[in-house]
Amino acid sequence: MKKYGFLITTILLTAFLSACFKPDIDPVANNLEPDPIKSEEGEQNVSMENPWSDTTMENIENKLGITVILPEGADNVSARTLSAQDLYEIIFDYYGMKYNYRLKRTDSLEDISGLYYDWTVSLEEKLRGHDAVSYRSISDNETVDLVIWYDENDLVSHSLSVSAQDLDGFDLSAVAMMMMPVAGGEGNYGAMYAPVLDENRDYILNGFDENKDYSYVSSGVMERVNYGETDELLESIGYMIKDITGDGVPELLIGENDTIYSEDGESHIYSVYTISNGTPVCVLEGWARNSYFYLGGCDFSYLGSGGAMYTFFGEGSLTFDGTEFYWKDYYFSSNIDGGDEMFFFRNTSGSFDVDNSEQLDIEASEFWDMLDDYKYELITWTPFKD
Fold first, then answer.
1. Residues 93, 99: contact at Cβ < 8 Å?
2. pTM for the whole structure
């Protein structure tokens, strides 16, 4: 598969924002200041002490226990807090527009934006697996966009808003998704793996599109989509983002559970990704005749077939940095010099080469018994329906 990365996604979105979308920005309208302090008569009371106080991004992260993600290229960043409500606010500029970003720990999704408009449009949706609602208010002099979302892992409500005289053709949700970890992910790495997950989810939902170039959909997922029903696949195929090698960089595993080879079940692995130089890199890819199964930690077993004479199986692991797979044992059956008799071989290179492998003096039953010795570990997947 071609391996493009999150950087390309960011560049494309950046090009869209800077080249395709050129809003007619009103500096006043674009500087959203929600929740002004008002007197009973409704006029702003300038003599009242400002309840907001300056803070830092680091303080917000420490208070909420999260990693704050801003779009690549955001500048003029400032942060403040409304201590009485445990509410945090970050103001930043991004390609000529000023954004208002708020965060607060809540039990469920709350609108913490402080914006009170008669919304022209509202849409409930899932963004990166998170519950979200998008709003737009259109008037003669101003358009206001708002996206709110909830991170169930961190128990934090988020709001992102922006305004201009005209926002036609602009999608605030695209900016918001750049600021979200994927549900079930680990910090910023969820956002870095988002292009992989988005492409796989789209393929499961819509199938193959000859007009698209697929960079991240494995042969295993393609194979399953060809023969499965969409609703069932969205439930059964899932992903896990977890640091399985211990190097501090979480890997992304995509697959599903079944009971083909074990009564207790096994986790079929369709692809394993890690992050290298800021880009998702595929390390393993499996499909029906080239299958990988999870054994726990960073270990995987393998089973492949090239016909009645040729069976391959073995066990291997990811390197500490997660960028390579190496074999601990690799077994295969084959004839010799085109003959009809089956022989059995072993190596640690993963090579189907009888001349560079150890020939085993075993019966066929012993060969198959070794295959049955693997102890699978089931993965609790986050299904793509989420």
1. yes
2. 0.56
